[in-house]
Amino acid sequence: MTRNHFSVLVRGSLFALAAIALCPNSFAQGPDVEAPTPAVERAAWFTAKSPSAMPEHNFWDAPNRTLFLAAAAANGADFAVTRANLQSGGQELNPIVRIFGRSTAGLALNFVSETAGLLSVNYFFHKTGYHRLERAASALNISASIGAVTFGLTHR
After folding, report:
1. Structure confidence by residue, pLDDT tens digits, 23-59
2. Domain residue limits at 144
3. How many domains does one find in the chain?
């Protein structure tokens, strides 16, 4: 890996970390106000607790809709840049996407499946009560897609 490729990857990773750190939803959780005292905690260690201190919310609330739209837009941009690079003689670096990248329809199927998979994972986290992971999965997908778009645009 050349020095230029490494610096692009580092910049993309730093951008992704900054996007996650500056996301207002990352700081939306606070301490559990109903935290038991140590004596009660020792006596009731087997009681069922919610995995997240975040209060219940609807799956299609405004922050999730915004995150899903941003993920779909980032995946769409990744599809467009990847397709343009492949048609101009470039090669796909991701071995999983390389399987689908032989045709435009296959490439589109890959990115639509990626977005649908993100929704499925988010719904699983929502139903099991892991609301922080629900939002973090979307942020991770968005940052990965933006990193791929940045890399694709700088290496045309």
Report:
1. 655 555 555 556 555 555 554 444 445 555 556 788 9
2. 61-156
3. 1
